[in-house]
Amino acid sequence: MEGSPDLAACNALLDALCLAGDLEAAGTFFEQMPARDAVSWTTLVSGRSRGGRHRCALEVFRGFLLDNMGRRLEEATLVSVLSACANLDGAEGLMSGMAVHAYMVRHEVEPTAFLGTALVDMYGKHGRLGGCTSAFEFVCKKEVCTWNALLSALANHGKEAEALVKFDMMRAEGFLPNQITFVALLMACARAGSVEIGLYWFEAMVAEYKVTPLMVHYGCVVDLLGCAGRFMDAIQVIERMPFAPDASVWGALLGACRLYGNVELAVEVGQKLMALGPQQSGRYVTVTNVFLEDGNWQAGVRMGEVMQEAGIKKIVGQSSVVLHGHAIP
Predict the structure, then answer these.
(1) Where does each PPR repeat begin and end (predicted)?
(2) Nearest Cα to Cα of residue 138 among 54, 82, 69, 80
(3) Which of 80, 130, 159, 311 is most buried, most CB within 10 Å of its CB?
């Protein structure tokens, strides 16, 4: 039946169920299929990974290996399982990803830009920058997405200066940065405290590269300025945004307020955040911490009362405020 119209139709329906997020129905349908091919298995692996069920995705992949002993794995299957490995926290995700990498080396699988990027991303997500760099060099024909995966990994794991160097190398090799590239670049500048460099590239992003800033870019710039204590500049950026700022933008400014103990602005920003999402207690906790660290216990206690009055549910891991390293329920 493999390759028949019936199998193709089954695979299409399986894909539709996965895209709709109905993973239980997709799993049931998969088990009832009279025949399966590599597309069937890959579709289910990818669907479960996209749905956040990364461990389940790996279990499906192991089933595929048992069902297809000795069969060479296709690129799409490897990319799907590497995505699951990248997003599965802990040793299981890393070790499974390394096993896929070992398979690629052992079977001399050509690391295309698509597959190579997935491998770079997997090592990057797990903070293994040595493996990330090696995987990057392993890719013969790199694309912008491959560079983006490397830049994001460096920016997220304390190698901001190296990220900036790699960005220059990327441009020198003729690659045009895109929206994802600039997210990684601005993040690196923010974490390195390279304010002027970050502002320069934010302007160049629009003027030179014709890349339209998204919410995430503005959030990075607000974080960049806020962490440097340039609150007025950060507020000006927010006021000039072509769309209403979301919680990520205000949250970046609130984090800076706490860093510098700017109580007055923290209250104002906190109110805006609470208006956007009153049921998320983490925002109340951050404002409360600003009050307590400023010695304003009365305001801190009042914020706790506001949470109770509003019926705010505490989130595990954010259920207490912290003062000088001590948690206060």
Answers:
(1) 6-40, 143-177
(2) 82
(3) 80
Indicate the DSSP class of residue 243.
S
Question: Which CATH code for domain 213-329?
Answer: 1.25.40.10
Q: Which of the 8 DSSP states describes residue 178?
A: -
Extract the residue ranges of the chain whose pLDDT is less than 70: 1-5, 70, 277-329
| CA gap 45, 50 in Å, rounded | 9
Element (H, E) at 322: strand 321-323
CA distance 77 to 72: 10
pLDDT at 297: 61
272 to each of 11, 219, 238, 284, how far by Cα in Å? Answer: 47, 15, 12, 11
Tell me the CB-side half-sphere exposure of residue 18, using CA atoms within 13 A.
23
State whether residue 327 is helix, strand or coil: strand
Q: Inter-axis angle of helices 54-67 and 38-50, to 10 degrees?
A: 170
What phi and psi, each to the nearest 5 degrees, are found at residue 278?
-65, -15
Residue 275: what pLDDT?
Answer: 75
Q: Where are the alpha helices (DSSP H) in 208-261?
A: 215-226, 231-239, 247-260
Which tens digit of pLDDT belongs to each residue from 88-116? 888 999 999 999 899 888 888 888 999 99
Two tokens at 268?
Answer: 């104002």
- What is the residue extent of each domain of the chain? 213-329
Distance CA 96, CA 202 (A): 38
